[in-house]
Amino acid sequence: MSVKDYIRERFFPHMWCPGCGHGVVLNAMIRAVESLGMSKNEIVMVSGIGCSARISGYVDFHSMHTIHGRALAFATGIKMSRPELNVIVPMGDGDALAIGGNHFLHAARRNIEMTAIVMNNRIYGMTGGQFSPLSGYAAAASTAPYGNIDHGFDIAKLSEAAGATFVARTTTYHVHELTRLIRDAILHEGFSVLEVLTQCPTYFGRYNRAGDAPEMMETYKNRTVAVGSEKKHQDPDLIERGVFVKKELPEYCREYEKVIEKNQQKQT
Amino acid sequence: MAKKKLKAHHIERTWCKGCGICVHFCPKQVLALDEHNIAYPAAPEACICCRMCEYRCPDLAIEVECQET
Ligand SMILES: Cc1ncc(C[n+]2csc(CCOP(=O)(O)OP(=O)(O)O)c2C)c(N)n1
Ligand code: SF4
Ligand code: SF4
Ligand code: SF4
Ligand SMILES: [Mg+2]
Q1: Which residue in chain A has the smallest CA separation from B15?
Q2: Whole-model pTM?
Q3: DSSP A4-49
Q4: CATH homologous superfamily for A3-267?
Q5: Ligand 3 atom closest to Cα of B18?
Q6: Is the CB of A3 inside 8 Å of chain B's CB atoms?
Q7: Which of A38, A85, A182, B5 is the most buried (most CB within 10 A)?
């Protein structure tokens, strides 16, 4: 199948700004699904609210566009009732970790099999460039014109501490790695988190004089390193990419199935 | 691996938003933006069919058709 077989062409050109990294994530997501040879019918994409969340409208999978911060809660309901489906939950950094932070922690803690993709542009794109819990110290935003005094989360460390059994990070510059990691995250039998650094040239780029889309992607190329690289010791500000956690632990739906089986046997 | 040869770049002109990502990252400077700010292959003979422009386009606006030689 070609890329166009996986999208709802009637909604193109899409609503994202020129050069928005969210489109690169969409592009890689389609290639990942195509390479897995999955049928569109086996996949449900659940999203909340934000520029990032609009991705669920563009893919021709089963899809659900829910409310801000709550995509994982809706996704949990879907997965519990139809565990055979592959559930993918793309979220913005605000969606996942500001308003949705609590859902995020507990979905990770339960190790329910789904793929959480955090499209981290370090800003609230949709509502006009307010800072998010990922903007980080000293970043500028419409609500922090003199520089943010909040510190940012480290999504990978947070996810690991909360119990996610697959945790990875990459960027929109590293498209082959992005496609491969989406694939690996989908295949993982447990809660997987993939953080993707994605450019918002319109707000984050403009407020922080980070340049246009190509320049922001150059920064992803130059300011990130593969996990475990020596370079990180010399320059601790470099951001690591790759897989941080991959482990097997009992998965929530399978455990729930066991509880049902055991107790049905008792009753008969 | 067999060498690939370019057949054509298919650019969806109504989808391209002129962001310049494909132009900037093409390793062979094949692509450019035209007077309407839309991507076009200015030097197709230099294309090595790596398809990085296709993979990085946020608008799914570019497809590189290649043939094995
Ligand atoms: C309950 C609720 N609160 C607030 C909003 C307003 N709102 C819409 S999107 C958004 C944040 C979007 O930022 P992010 O999740 O990072 O996505 P992005 O647009 O950057 O991709 C907010 C605060 C809302 N829609 N619903
Ligand atoms: S505002 Fe930012 S995140 Fe939203 S579509 Fe534009 S570039 Fe993308
Ligand atoms: S990357 Fe895509 S949208 Fe951007 S200029 Fe190239 S073809 Fe157009
Ligand atoms: S396929 Fe590679 S060489 Fe050819 S135009 Fe695209 S990026 Fe340039
Ligand atoms: Mg955001």
Answers
A1: A13
A2: 0.98
A3: GGGB-GGG-S-SSPTT-HHHHHHHHHHHHHHHHT--GGGEEEEE-S
A4: Thiamin diphosphate (ThDP)-binding fold, Pyr/PP domains (3.40.50.970)
A5: 5
A6: yes
A7: A182
